[in-house]
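ok so for the tutorial part 2 we go from a plain amino acid sequence to predicted structure tokens. step 1 is just haveing the sequence, like this:
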Amino acid sequence: MSLLTRHLIDPIVVGIRDLYSWLLSERRALRGLAATRILVGIAAVGILLTNFTSRHVIWGPGSSWAEPYRENSEFGSLLDLYAGDSSAVFTLKYLLLLTVAIAFLIGWRARLMNILLVIGMAGLVERADMLGNQGDNILRIGLTLLFFMSTSEHWSLDARRRARARAREAAGEEFTVAQRVWYGLPLLPGWWTALIHNVALIALACQVFILYTASALYKVQGELWQNGTALHYPLSLGEFGVFPEINALLSANPILLTIMTYFSVFVQLFFAVGLLHPITRRLFLLGVIGLHGGIAVLMGIPWFSLAMLAYDAIFVSDRTYRRIEGLAARAAADFRRRLGFSPDSDPPEDAPRQAGRSDKSTEEQHAGKTIAERRAVTKNR
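step 2 — the prediction. this is what the tokens look like for a chain of 381 residues:
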């Protein structure tokens, strides 16, 4: 019985306890989700800007050709958000949606902008769904899940506002419920906030896994993918040729074409499994970056690729993002020094301390805080 307990029951109990701690102790992947917010915002802005000159024909008053498709749309009255015969009114709504996308990108009232963006993009894009692609679907699904997560804890205007409020709160000031909502401070207990955030994060990760795995399994059923010739046909189409010379060069090389075909299937099929080990996780993340980068450049659908990469960003560790933060902060400080400005008094995150100047109390105060929070505390001293 003791052998059974040690090798079966104890590991299960430890696993349940670790899962409980992972779900309830803190919100996960905050920097990854901040990167996701920024990339999703760029994708939404890119879609709206690149289609700005043809907006009336695709979605506006000049899109009467799509009415038969709208009658059977599952989105129903949501499409009426942009209905009407006035080009000026449609353009105003279009620009308002663009403003929402930019506000979400920079993290201004990110949760409110999130829900407005998902509703606005769904109502717009689905007015001509036959012209869209799977990037529109994953963008919308991901945005719906992002609403339940904290996407503006880093690299956002919300983070600066919350940092100032938390500094005032640490100084003894008390906020009403309305003030906490205004400053973006949590209303629920910490474990509830962490649970909702982490469950939504798991759902988003599962959505990415399902999408990649289903796509790969669908590909391997086709004879062209099995033969390694599937990519020859889209690369040969003029409609996808952003750089026709590159496409022609790749299509003329059967060995390279076969490697690219098998590579795309391999990366998608084993992506979820590849994330289980730190080394293979880095390799597969580089693989999907190469995959979607190739789709963006060679097939001319950059916003689909950017939307996918946005949700892949949650699999990059916080340690990597902190290193990038430190490098960016040091590069910015060097640039300011070259321009003659005094360097920022706040040291970059993860920057090594100078010998003989270790301050344990300051180190403990800064642990786990964002750059914005540390600056707010410094200003209030």
